[in-house]
Amino acid sequence: MPTAASHRFDVALLPSAAQPLDGTTVVVVDVLRATSTIIAALFNGATDVLPQPSIEAARTAHQRIGENSVIGGERQGKIVDGFQHGNSPLEYVPEAIKGKHLILATTNGTVAMEACRAADRVLIGAMVNVDAVAEAVFDIPRVCVMCSGTDRIITSEDVCFAGLLLERMIAKRKQKQIPDAFLTDAAHIAIDHWRSVQNAVAAGKPLVDFFKTARGGINLVRIGREADIEFAAQIDRFNTVPELDLNSWKIT
Ligand code: MLT
Question: What is the pTM of this model?
Answer without folding.
Answer: 0.96
